[in-house]
Amino acid sequence: MAKAIASAIAAMAVIAGSVPGSAMAQANVARQEQTVRQAYHISAGALAPALRHLASVAEVPLTFTADQTDGKTTAGINGQYTAQEAFALLLRGTGLQSVRLENGGYVLRPQAVAPENAAASPASALPDVQVSASADKEKAWGPVYGYVAKRSASATKTDTLLVETPQSISVVTSDQIQAQASKSIRDVIGYTPGVGAQTNGYRDTDNLILRGFQIDNSSIRRDGLRSPSNTFTGTQEPYGLERVDILRGAASLLYGATEPGGLINLVTKRPSAETWHEAGLEVGSYNRVEATADLSGSLNEEGSLSYRLTLLNRKSDSFIDFVPNDRLYIAPALNWKIADSTQLTLLTHYQESKLNRQWGLPPEGSLLPNKNGVLPRGLSIGEPLDNRKDIHKSATLLLEHQFNEQNKINLSLRRNQVDLDWNYAGRDSLQDDQRTLTRYFARRMEKVTAWTFDANLQSQIRTGSIDHQLTLGVDGSSSDAQRTRRYALIAPLDLFKPVYGAKPYGDDGKDGYRENTRALGLYLQDQIKIDQRWVLLLGARHDSVKIDQSDYFEPAWNMDKTTSTTGRAGLVYLAENGLAPFISFSQSFQPIGGTDRLGARFKPTKGEQYEFGVRYQPAGSNTLLSAAMYQLTQSNVQVPDPADPDNYSIQTGEIRARGLELEAKSDLTRNLQLIAAYTYTDAKTTKAGPTQPDVVGQRQANTPTHQFSAWADYQFADLGVPKLKLGMGMRYVGKALASNAPYEVPAFHVFDAGVSYDVDKWRFKLNVKNLTDKSYIVECGNGYCNYGDPRQVTLSAQYRW
Question: Taking every annotated instance into account, which residue ranges of this chain make up the domain Secretin/TonB short N-terminal (predicted)?
Fold first, then answer.
């Protein structure tokens, strides 16, 4: 791997030196300097975020200090203006003015006021203001002010406008995460199309469903790099994220092995030279107490060294007995601008969680009738002695070097380690009396250590009216995982009259494994813009994955090696009125370990997607409307071998998903923001094995046909209370087929709400999840069902300075 990295970097440097210069950079500057009129809809409120919002919409650099805007508010603007006019209107009554610089950017300075004795005082010029912070236009890996993101790097690994991306992608911003008080990745994606609840209902893992296909941590990236954790090693903390990008559909071109449904890229909060301090305290249901802090700023006068420190400490129970929800999160980060052309970023985090698994309850008594009655939502099948702790530690280096105006190289390197120590009483089977549950006891220990890297060269080339954005890269990972489990016996539990305190006894066996995975991929992508109207994306990738596995207690290594070539092609048309229709084809692969009955290694599963969609984003607006239709097929799916169905499999299965997704994010007025999404998914088995003729045509488990969600925020500026904001949301999930069971999970809908009020530097918030305290089943699988979360109330206070 080290040789591969060194060779790739050397090759990229040679290529970068050989690419000729062009006038593209000058053209970009010229576009920034244009003073065309655009539509601005900026609500009344604090001045600093309003200025950042304006700069983001106008796509111009804006520089100001925190002292200049501290404590100042604006009445907002609503209409068609040039950037200079918009700044002037937004700054009315603040004592500040915007000054346009030669490079097309703006700087804030005190407003010039002529003194009464101006004639006698010619020396009335104001002194220069020393600038110590900046608010540049939106970047794909940076903050988004509000709910409407316009750029992302998750689909292309380049800073690309969403309307120029020929594949469906949604962005959940940090502002949306905070407004909806999302406490898990499952909460974060609750108002996003194409995404469903995980297939096992567990809250200690981030595995979800995208377009009818389960994704787990193998399809979750952080800052574009693979996560080494698995379905047992915990969840990610949303408070540490700047944004969450959901890329739907086959996406192996830039990321290698992934499930066909797509992937989720978590973007970590990064250092900023702009001074920003936030501290908060939250209390809520189930004895929840949570303290947070988010601090950033410059460490020197030049602004070349900046930091970010994100902290969270939570102590909480949950609605399930004996299931705590405690977490400690510490994330220091540094950015060093070594030179104008080079910067280095260090991201680290330590996360310690205590969240016992929610095992679910038998369907008899939760979903289906039980002669003994109804099982309560908070019933635990475990014991008070259950104890689980997982620890995540990571350190990431991000290096960016600009060779010249057209060529730059990006290097990312991460070391990640996850440790799990877990004692638990697990479920076994429900007896014929429908109340006695047999159980087992286990001591489980897991450790995953991984190195991941990505190195790519990005080159801009202009030939006539055609612009090329070339990305040549190599990425890979090396992970070592081990698991041990030791079993014991434990007394059964009467679900309707539970008596806890049972102790494990005896020795009921042990198991464990070791697994070493090495992956290396080479990719090439070309984003071609023709006449500023057509965007063509072409790309290809080749991967090699090697997996060595062995029993932990009796080492005997087996090796699986997989190679795969995948690609993607897409076309977007950029109309003058803001419409951007697109069409695309993409592929994915996922290795499968093991052999068939004849000893042949299994092939990787393959995913192929055809997608047609359209986005609408009027120039200068804060609105993005999206619609997409797709067909996504997974082949080489394992099914029972007809010659020995109990012990072997063959790869003749196929699953196909077809669907429609609609999404709207918009500032409808200066005081009203809306998020809405609709999903239609027809995912079913299209090919099965000879022993499973009835499976053909069966729907994918826990994948509802229809889903709908909507969230609206209203700021009461027109009623004279601009610092009061009310949010309301509704999530509807249609009926779905249970996993490995002949019954359906009923449809359900829940309501959420949030209200906030700003007082000087304080923000007070009240959020309620499941406002009506509706009791519902979120999913059923493998003979057990999981209730959805009951009503949860949180009250928080944040102080910002």
Answer: 60-111
